[in-house]
Every structure is written in structure tokens, then in C-alpha cells.
Amino acid sequence: MEHYDFTKLDSKGRQPKVVHRSDWESHADLWMGVLEGKDIGAGVTVLFYATDEIGKGPLWHVHPYDELFIVRKGRALFTIGDKKIEAETGDVLLGPADIPHKYHSIGPGRLETTDIHLSDRWIQTNLDDPELAR
């Protein structure tokens, strides 16, 4: 078996890191919070979201990069551009760069998502929701 030097740095001068939940969480009882890649030298930002309230979720917004949504638990209605997609536990969706999107819990039970932003920073522009203007 080959010996590996765990003190070795990668090509970007990094070593393995751990970020404890207390460093990114925004709610002690729910999986909610943000970990920006810039804080650990990574090219992705991870948002953890959870709600027990049907109809609640992130409002209409857009990012200048792709975003992956992982439904860890529950069911949600995603609006990505002009598409409506019902998603449930285990589904993964792509929100392409520059396409406005939102989602909310459709229940029953808790909705938990992990949203992976393909950027080392969380860059978001909130928009007026065209569905609410009707």
C-alpha cells in the first residue's frame, strides 16, 4: 500500500478543512445557513434551507452562475424561468445562470434543501415576482 503524505498541499496550496455547523448555521434546530466557498478556498457556495411551513421558500431571484437544488426531504414546487416543476426527496434540479427562480414547500411535512451555487460567493439579485403582480 502506498504511503500518502497528509501534510502535502494541493496545487492551490490548500489542505483539507472542516467547517463546523456552528460556523455556518443560522438556526439551531433546522438545517439553515450559508457556507461561502471563498471562506474555505472552494469554488462553490452551499446554502442549507429548511421550513415546516407550506407555501414558504426563497422568493423570485436570479444569480449570474448555475445553481443545483437538492431536495433532501419533503416536496417543493420550483419555478425556474417559465417552467413549474414539482420535486421531492432525492430530486436534483438545475437552475441555469441568469434564469430567475424560486421554490416553496408544498408539504406535507418539512422541506429541506441543499442549494449549491457554482461560485465562491453568494451573488443574488432579488426580483419583483411576476406572479404576485397579477
Q: In a few lines, what is going on in this structure?
A:
With 134 residues, the chain is mainly beta. 3% of the residues lie in helices and 37% in strands.
Please provide a written account of the structure.
- The chain is an all-beta fold and 134 residues long.
- 3% of the residues lie in helices and 37% in strands.
- It is built from 1 helix and 10 strands; from the N terminus they run αββββββββββ.
- The chain has one helix at residues 21-24, and strands spanning 33-35, 45-51, 61-62, 67-73, 75-80, 83-88, 92-95, 101-105, 111-117, 125-126.
- The strands form 3 sheets. A 5-stranded antiparallel sheet has the order 1-2-9-4-7, with no helix packed on it. It has a 3-stranded antiparallel sheet with strand order 6-5-8, with no helix packed on it.
- Strand 5 and strand 6 (83-88) form a beta hairpin.
- The termini are far apart.
- The model has no long low-confidence stretch (mean pLDDT 93).
Features of the shown structure:
134 residues; mainly beta; 3-stranded antiparallel sheet; 5-stranded antiparallel sheet; 37% strand; 1 helix
Distance linking N and C termini: 66 Å
Gross geometry: globular
Radius of gyration: 17 Å
Q: Tally the helices: what do you get? A: 1
Secondary-structure class = mainly beta
Q: How are strands sequenced across the largest beta sheet?
A: 1-2-9-4-7
| pLDDT < 50 stretches | none
Largest sheet entry: 5 strands, antiparallel
How do the helices and strands line up, and which of them pair or pack?
Layout: H1 21-24, E1 33-35, E2 45-51, E3 61-62, E4 67-73, E5 75-80, E6 83-88, E7 92-95, E8 101-105, E9 111-117, E10 125-126
